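Researcher: I'm preparing a figure for a lab meeting and need a structural model of a single chain. I don't have an experimental structure, so a prediction will have to do for now. The sequence is pasted below. Please return the structure as tokens so I can convert it later.
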Amino acid sequence: MSQTRQTIFMKRKIALIFGGRSAEHEVSLNSAKNIFTAMDTNLFDVQLIGISKEGTWYQFANSDVFKKHKSLNDSRLTDEDMVTLISIGGNPYFYSFRTQERRQIDCAFPIIHGTMGEDGTLQGLFKVVQLPFVGCDVLASAVGMDKEFMKRLMTESGIKNSKYLILRRENMLPYNEIVKELGSPFFIKPANAGSSVGVHKIKTEDDYMNKISDSFLYDHKVLAEQFNEGAEVECSVLGLNQKPKASLPGQLKVHHEFYSYEAKYIDAKGAEIIIPAPLPENQIREIQELAVKTFKSLGCDGLARVDFFVNKNGEILVNEINTLPGFTQISMYPKMWEASGLKYSALITELIQIAFEKFSNDRKLKLDFN
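Model: Understood. Here is the structure written out token by token.
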């Protein structure tokens, strides 16, 4: 057994990092609560690190933070211990401003969805302080977050995806021109956002004029994307880039106009989840193969969820990849792995183990020239 395999089963100090400056802040807290509950305390000593909406880092003594706070705001956290992440002698620590003590940390489990957490920014900080972390590296996180470049790479890799146009404030295409290219209806969505924040289904020119400003609240770049009529299917991927594996896929039956933020997180009856997806075996295999191909093509590591459209004619298109999917009670990523035989707690352990493996592999690379 390698040193990495041995050390993972020692009790390691894991920083579960949540919140953040993101439109998905509240979803992040919900995900973190579930991950904390599922973590094997025989293996891991979990430190709860919350980042406020203003960007301040705090450490919390226990899971009461999830009962007391639906979101983290500096004005409500005046009694909490502020911390910062530092590196001394190549070892990462959290430094407490209150006690002026530092606590060494072995691995980060970031569960900040969206901007400033899923887009490579936080991952870059971990790399600088030499802290192993769960999930994709800097580049894959950034590309997976930016839907334009994600689609460009998928297209270059021969992965079919839906047609789209890029909209900018200084290049606002007229409604009729978009319809000519994409048909009607079509979707508009911020290029760098998740959880369907700022996403709208556009049926008329009035829809377009009324909704586009909301999409631009979340990014300087907006995608207009073709509407695909058919089944919405998702597939979880797990592992290092060289050897990922795919779960059984699941299908969404949405009871709203589309899979909106409300359908995902607010309305308990907003959508049904069917796992495994009621599809022929050949389509299930194709979806799993495409999920792995997408994961590898974008340079992902650790985890990702790949979303598909299965059109009525049987054509399978990749919608997008999510490099830090939700871990809420209704989230598809852990549910699909449970249906594939990997229980929630074991999934969390495996993700942390993969983080240590990747860090060990990266440490073998030379950083100087002699």
